[in-house]
Amino acid sequence: MRMRRDDTARRAPGELEAQVLAVLWKADGPLSPAEVRERLGAGLAYTTVVTILSRLHEKGVADREKLGRSFRYRAVDDEPGLAARRMTKVLDNEPDRDSVLARFVSNLSESDEHLLRELLRQNEG
What we know:
- The chain is built from six helices and two strands.
- It is mainly alpha-helical.
- Strands 1-2 form a two-stranded antiparallel sheet.
- Strand 1 (about 60-65) and strand 2 form a beta hairpin.
């Protein structure tokens, strides 16, 4: 009979992808799956790391380059860039973009509103 891992030890959805992305963000250049696995230090199977890297590539979050018979991966964006991509994706999927943006802006804190205005001013010039 195969031993099951304790359910309390299960990762939250997306947690492993986030850990792999963190490794890619810290790297000076593209990494192989073996290098990612080594830096994670979580005792993960090589195939698990390859699967996660492939998923990140399919989502457009990681880029890859062929080296011999395998790939090396790097993050496409840093954390703020990734958050901005997610926000853009949400807006792109909304039929009433104007209303969504209006609601978003009306719910900003005073300091965030001030920051947004300043950023818009900077982008005008």
